[in-house]
Amino acid sequence: MARLLRASCLLSLLLAGFVPPGRGQEKSKTDCHGGMSGTVYEYGALTIDGEEYIPFKQYTGKYILFVNVASY
């Protein structure tokens, strides 16, 4: 049951990626942390297994959805 719920949530997020932004949302910017500078494209992340570094600059011009999957 939990697997089905998780799959339906992921499908919803995937489909949401195909929705074009509404008026005024194309160039929104939010300052989340005062100690950070630059854009998200200057950073990257390790894959979950830690084997590969993914630079975010490869996603320039595309919609990006960041999901915090930290467990407690």
Automatic annotation (TrEMBL):
Signal sequence extent: 1-24
Record carries keyword Lyase: no
InterPro entries per the UniProt record, alphabetical: Glutathione_peroxidase
Keywords on record: Oxidoreductase, Peroxidase, Signal
Gene3D superfamilies recorded: Glutaredoxin
GO BP field: response to oxidative stress
Example of a GO MF term: peroxidase activity
Recorded family membership: Belongs to the glutathione peroxidase family.
Protein known as: Glutathione peroxidase 3
Species, as recorded: Otolemur garnettii
Taxon lineage: Eukaryota, Metazoa, Chordata, Craniata, Vertebrata
